[in-house]
Design brief:
The complex is a heterodimer of chains A (about 425) and B (about 475).
Chain A (H helix, E strand, L loop, with lengths): L1 H33 L1 H18 L1 H4 L6 E4 L2 E3 L1 H9 L7 H5 L9 E3 L41 H37 L4 E4 H20 L2 H6 L2 H26 L3 H4 L1 E4 L1 H14 L2 H11 L5 H11 L2 H14 L3 H8 L4 H37 L11 H7 L7 H30 L3
Antiparallel strand pairs in A: 1-2, 1-3, 4-5
Helix pairs in contact in A: 1-18, 2-6, 2-18, 6-11, 6-13, 6-14, 6-16, 6-18, 7-9, 12-13, 14-16, 16-17, 16-18, 17-18
Chain B lengths: L1 H27 L5 H6 L10 H18 L8 E5 L12 H14 L2 H19 L7 H14 L5 H17 L1 H23 L9 E5 L5 H11 L12 H36 L4 H15 L2 H13 L21 H39 L2 H8 L4 H30 L2 H7 L4 H10 L3 H29 L9
Classes of the chains: A mainly alpha (about 425), B mainly alpha (about 475).
Amino acid sequence: MIFGNKKEKILIYRIESGKSTNSQDSLFWSRFRKNRMAVWSLRVLWILVFFAVFSNFIANEKPLYCKLNGEHYFPVFKSIAIDFGLSDWDAVFQSTPWHDHQFESVIRTPIPWSGNTIDLKSGNYQSPLDTHKSEFRHWLGTTDLGRDVLAGMIEGARVALLVGLISMSLAALIGIILGAIAGYFGDSRLKISRGRLILNLIGVFLGIFYGFIVRSFNYSEGSFGIEFLKSLGIFTVTFILFNLLSILLKRNSFFRKQVTIPADLLIMRVIEIMNAMPGLLLLLAAVAIIKQPSIFYVMVIIGLIGWTSIARFIRAELLRIRNLSYIEAARAMGFSEFQILLKHAIPNALGPVLITLAFGIASAILLESTLSFLNIGVSDEDVSWGKLLSYARQREEAWWLAVFPGLAIFITVTIFNLIGEGLSDAFENRE
Amino acid sequence: MLSYLIKRIILFIPTLLVIAIFAFGLSQLTSDDPVLQYDNEDGRTGVYTKRDLIRLENHYRVVREKLGIDKPSFYFSLNAQAYPDTLYKFLLLEEREALRKLISTYGNWPAIETYFNQIKQFEYRILALPDGLPRKEMTDLKKGVRDLYDEYKAEVIASKLEKIETVLSKDSTMTVELGAFFSDFKGNYQNVISTATTYKLYIPDFKWQGFNNQFHHWFFNFIKGNFGYSLITRQPAAKRIIPALKWTLLLNLSAIFFAYLISIPIGVKAAANKGGRFDQGSALGMFMLYSLPSFWLGTMLLIFFTTKAYGMEIFHGVWAGNMKFENFSTDFWDTIGHLVLPIFCITYPAFAFLSRQMRGSMNEALKQDYIRTARAKGLPEKTVIWKHAFRNALFPLITIFASIFPASIVGSVAIEYIFNIPGMGNLILSACLQYDWPIVFSVLMLGAVLTLVGMLVADILYAIFDPRVSYKKN
C-alpha cells in the first residue's frame, strides 16, 4: 500500500503543478498578445513559414502535373519522394531540362523557376522592368546566369528558417543541459561516486579514441557529416557502457565514496572561454576547415558556438527556482535529484529561454546570411538570401539584387527581434 | 582591490591556455602541408637527379624548422599502439599520409618502416645508375618508384611492383645493378603483409612527447610577441597584423566615438519623457536600425552612392589596392571620402544598441530616491537630469565600451569586405580561406586576451566610478 500511496501523491502533485503552470501560461500569452508589434510579427512569421514549407510547390522548374507521351506525371511530388530516397527519375526527365519538354498538358507552379535554374535567355542580370525574352516572366529580375531572383527568395526563406531552427535547437539542447546543471547543482550539490567519476573519465578517453582517433581515415573518404555522426554514436555507446559498469563498482567501499563536482565553476569557465573567443573568427575558421561546403555545417557550427547565452539564462532561472518551496517538497517526497531537475525545475525555467531563442534565431539568420554574402560555407547549388545579395557587388546596375534579398533578411531578422521583445516584455511584467 | 586584481589575472591563465589549445587543435584538423603553402608551388615536381632530391629535402628541413613544425605537435599523444611517435620526422606530407594509411591497414610499424625507408634507398640507387641508359625506361622507373610513396592499397602496390619489375627486366644493366636490391625490396613488402598486426590498431596508447613540441614553442613565442610567419606572404605575422589593425582601429574607434556622441543625448531625452512621443518614436527607430543588417545597408550605399549607374556618385567607391596615408594635404580628403560610408555602417548598429542601453540605465537612475529628493528640493528638471541622474546612468555605458572595444579588433568583416578596406576583417577573411594558420591563431589569441582584459577593465571602471561597488571580501 505504501507504493500505491506514493503514486497517488505524485499524481495529485502533477495535476496541481500542471494546473498552476497552465494558468501562468495563459496569463503570459494574454500579456504577449497585448503587444501589437509582436503579434503582427508572429503573423508575418506564419507567412514566412508557409513559404518555407511549401516552397517546392510555389517556385519550381518542375511542373505540378504534366502529361508526356500519353503518360501522367507529378514531378514535384516525385522530387520530394526522391529526396527521401524512395524513388528515381524516369529516363524521360533525366536528359532534358524541364523547360525544354513539349508537354501535352501541364499544370505549373505559380513561379515556374527553381532557385538554381539556369536560364541563359534572360541571363546577364535582367532587370524586373525589362521586356522579358524567356518563356516565363522573371518578376524580380535575374542574376548573371539568369537565375530567377523571386524563386531564390522563396527558397531562401526555407534556408533562413532552417538555419534558425537547426542552429538554435542545437544551441538550446547544449545550453539547457549545461545551464541547468550549473544553476541547479551549483558548486556543492553535484555528488557522484568515485567509481563513477573514474569510469566516466576513462569512458570519455576511450570514447574519443574509438569514436574519432581510430576512425580518422574514414573522414578523408566518406562524407564528413555522416562520418561525424557515426563517430558521435560510437562515443556515446562507449560512454554509456562505462556508466553501466560503474554500477558494479559501487560494491567496493573505496569507489562508493562520494565526490563533489564544482559543476557551476566548470561550466561558467567554459562559457567564459567561449565568450572570450571572437565568434565570427571562430566561425570562419571552422567553416574553412570543412572542405565540402554546405549550409548544413554552417547551421551546426552556429549552434555549437551560440549556446552560451541560453545556458546563462537557464542558470540564472534555476538559481532562483532551486530555492522555491515546491522543489523542496519534491525532494522531501523522495524524488531523485535528476528527476526533480528534469521534471520539475527545467520545465519551469523554459519560459525565459524563449526570449533568448527568438533573439538567437535572429542573430543566427543574420550570421548565416553574412557568411553566404562573403561566399563562405555555401556550395554552388545552395540558394540563400545572403548569396543572392552578394551578386549585387558584381554588377552595380542590378539594384534588384541589392534591394530584394536584403529586404527579406531585414524583415525576418526584425520580426524575430520583435517577437523576442514581446516575450521579454511579457516576462518582465510577470511579478 | 589589488588582491582581487591579482586573483582575476591568475584566473586568466587557464582560460587563455584552453583557448590556445583549442585554436591549435583547429589548425591540426586541416590536411594541408604548410611547407607547400609557404612555397606556393608543388615542390616535388622536377625531381630528376640526386642533387634535386637532396636539395628538396634540405629545403623542406629548413622551411619546417622556420615554421616550427619539425617537432611533435603536442605534449602527449593519444593514438593506437600501432602508430609510432616519430611520424613527424618524415619530411613530406604525402609520405606521412601514406605511412598512416599503411599503418592503418597492416598495423606493424617496424616492417612498414623498413619497407618505406627502402623506397628512398631505391630512389637513391636509381639516381646513382650509370649514364647512357634508355631514357624512357629511366623515367618509367623513377616515376614508378616515386608513386610508391603515395600508395597503400595492396593491389595497387602489387601492380606497381610488377610494372617496375618489367621495366627492370628489359634492360640488362638495370637488372644487374638493381635486380638483387629489388627482390630484397619486394621481400620486405611481402613481410609487411605477412606480419600484419591489425589488433594493435585498437589498443589505445598514451605517449609523452616532451616539451620540445609545436604547441609549446608556438605558445611561448606568442607570449614573447613572436607570432610566427604568414604562410602566404612569408612575412612575420605581426607585420601583416599591425597595418591592418591601424585601419580597423581608425574605423572602429571613430565609429564608437560617433555612436556615443549621438546615442547619449537621444537616450537621455527618451528616458526623460518616458512614454512620450519622442520615446516611442525613437524606440521604434532604434529597434529598426538595430535589426537592419549592416552588410545590406553597406551594399546599397556602395551601389547607389558611389557608382555612376544611378547618377548619385557622392562618395568614393571601393578602395583599389593598398591604402596609403603619406601626404596629409592630398590624401586626407581622399581617405575621408572612402571612410565615410564604412564608418557610418559600423556606427549605426552600435548607436542603436547604445541608445537603448542609455535609455534603460537612465530610466533606472531616475527611479532612485535621490532623484525624488532633488526634485523635492525644487531643482529645475534640467539640473536633475543632467547633474544627478545622468552621471550615475553613465557607468553602464562606460563599462560597455570595455566590451565593445575588444570585439572591434576583429573588425567588421562584412563592411571591410564590401568597401575593400585592408583592415583586420579582410585579413582574417583571407587568412581563413587560405588556411594561413599563424595569422588566424594570432588574431584569435589577441582577441581573446583583449576580451578578458576588457572584462577586467570593465569591473575596475565600475569600482572607480561607483563607490558603492566593492570587490573586498565581506
